[in-house]
Amino acid sequence: MTSTKPVVIETRGLRKVFSAGRAPITALQDISFAVREGSFVSLVGPSGCGKSTLLQMLAGLMPSTAGEVFVDGLPVRKPAPDKISVMFQDATLLPWKRVAENVEFPLEVRGTDAAERRERAAAMLSLVGLTDFGARYPHELSGGMRQRVAIARALAPDPRILLMDEPFGALDEQTRIKMGHELLDIWSKTRKTIFLITHSLTEALFLSDIVLVMSHRPGRIVGVIEAGLPRPRTYDIIGSAEFGAARNRIWKLISQDDDESGDNGMASL
Amino acid sequence: MSLRRLLIIMVILGTWEAVRRLDLVGPLLLASPSEIIGAFVKSWPDYFLALRFTIAEIAAALALALIVGIGTGIVAGMVPFFGATAGPLLSSLFAIPLITWYPLFMVWFGLGTMSKIVYAAVSGFFPIAINTMNGIRGLDRRYLLFGQAIGCSRRQVVFRILLPMAMPSIISGLRIGTGLVVIGVIVAEMLASFGGIGYLISYYRSIYATGHVYLGILFALACALAANWGLSLVERRFTHWRELQIGER
After folding, report:
1. A100 and A51 co-located in one domain
2. Do B149 and A59 touch (CB under 8 A)?
3. Which side of chain A, N or C, has fewer Cβ within a 10 Å radius?
4. CA closest to B151 among chain A residues
5. Would you say residue A25 lies in a domain?
6. Which of A130, A158, A186 is the last residue of a domain?
7. Measuring CA to CA, how many Å separate A121 from each of A98, A115, A125, B68, B164?
8. Do A139 and B248 touch (CB under 8 A)?
9. Are A146 and A169 contained in the same domain?
10. Is residue A194 part of a domain?
């Protein structure tokens, strides 16, 4: 459905080898995919398969061993804060700053003047529904609210791309579902390109246009699933037959890969 | 309430005075409150001069310990290789009674003010450096990534994110360090010097003027209180959010 839009993120033959220990470990191998402007793409895979490593490479926070990441056709070698924002599982808010100051922080760091910062922070807090909480401290908020502050902060510099590393992983299920809805709402209002990492197949499918499926060690992309579900989506869709079928396809890709690597392991013994 | 407190203090002072007057304890061991007051009336200008001297040394030593300690702690906390070497080294040096080095400090920095400042600064340095290092090491790595991702310079990452994050740990190092600096200055003055509260205590002890020794101890207490007061200002400035957190959770 977004196939006519230009590609904003592209990786070509991305590979990452960690050589800190005695034996070098290949964390990622031959990662090639493209994300189109304004689309919502999720990456699922077993824990420890290198999802976070990949996200850090997309953000320019970690160099690749081989291959390259391109954003707008230009290679990414260092963080590009005006194009890309990153969000982590823990909100990583600064506990000594009030909520509004936290949202302003990325702007403050780059020297935006105070009036503009305040205006921008107010707009972002209103977008995430926390208008009345600007003067609070992070520890006064619930986990879900803290993540909403983190979303507001990530959107404050008006980036085109939002990279999210298990943003709702630490939340309870109800809050998590609610946050998913809100994220879709924010996405439809702002039209950012979102790349989200999750280990929840349901969450990935419910939110995304495209789900990338990753294998375990070395991390490879073993499938690209088009969700093909109508938007706007409501929670009911999770019970539908097409949702179940798509979820099964993803599950098969993940479990199949598990079996294969298990067999390989046996064979090499 | 205050009346009762006053009464208790009066009783204690009265008993203390009586013990001396009745000569239950010898004059070398105990000075009565009146003797201490006598010493104060007789030589208070000397004591205030010495107090200024000592407090200036404490302030200088504290500033030195703070700057070098936090600086070393940041580097040791952030640079893995340096930290792996410096961590155990700092901890083991901290475990040595530093006073054994004092004769060397006198040779290196003379009998004057400088040897006191350096000696006290070194004793305060260790807990500050160790706590800063541990505070930074204990931080979630994602804060570092977050800082880099929003385009912070290295300097901004350190001073705008990591250092404030580690502040609770740094403050507790500072608390230990301040105590050690005060002790360091006064002990060093007592061992060999030309002035300061420690010098007065040591001098009057050598001429058996017990009242003066007690007065000197009270002034040493004043130094510690002054240093603690300065520390509490710093503490309130940097960790108000943390107290809030504990208070409300």
Report:
1. no
2. yes
3. C
4. A81
5. no
6. A158
7. 12, 10, 6, 38, 22
8. yes
9. no
10. yes
Inform me whether the C-beta atom of residue A61 falls under 8 Å from chain B C-beta atoms: yes
**CA-based nearest distance B72→chain A, Å:** 24
CA distance B181 to chain A (A): 29
Nearest to A137 among B142, B146, B241 (CB): B241
| Shared-domain flag, residues A170 and A236 | yes
Neighboring chain B residues of A109 at a CB cutoff of 8 Å = 150-152, 156, 160
Sequence-distant (6+) residues with CB within 8 A of A216 are A45, A46, A48, A49, A257, A258, A261
Q: Identify the domain containing residue A119 by its residue range.
A: 91-158
Q: Residue A31 corresponds to which tokens in the numbers above?
A: 């990662």
What residues does A214 pair with on adjacent strands? A221
Which CATH code fits B34-241?
A: 1.10.3720.10
Contact B221, B227 (CB under 8 A): no
The answer to whether the Cβ–Cβ distance between B150 and A94 falls below 8 Å is: no
CB of B74 closer than 8 Å to CB of B158 = yes
Query: What is the C-alpha to C-alpha distance for residues B12 and B31, in angstroms, rounded to an integer?
Result: 14
Cross-chain residue pair A109–B148, CB shorter than 8 Å: no
Q: Is A45 among the domain residues?
A: yes
ipTM associated with this complex: 0.87
Tens digit of pLDDT at every position of chain A (269 positions): 446 788 889 989 888 888 876 788 888 888 888 889 999 999 998 877 888 889 999 999 999 999 999 998 899 889 988 899 999 888 899 999 999 999 999 999 989 999 999 999 999 999 998 999 999 999 999 989 999 999 999 999 999 999 999 999 888 888 888 899 999 999 998 899 999 999 889 999 999 999 999 888 788 888 888 888 888 888 888 888 888 988 988 988 888 766 555 444 343 33
Report how many domains make up chain A: 2
Tokens (6 digits) for A230: 């109508």
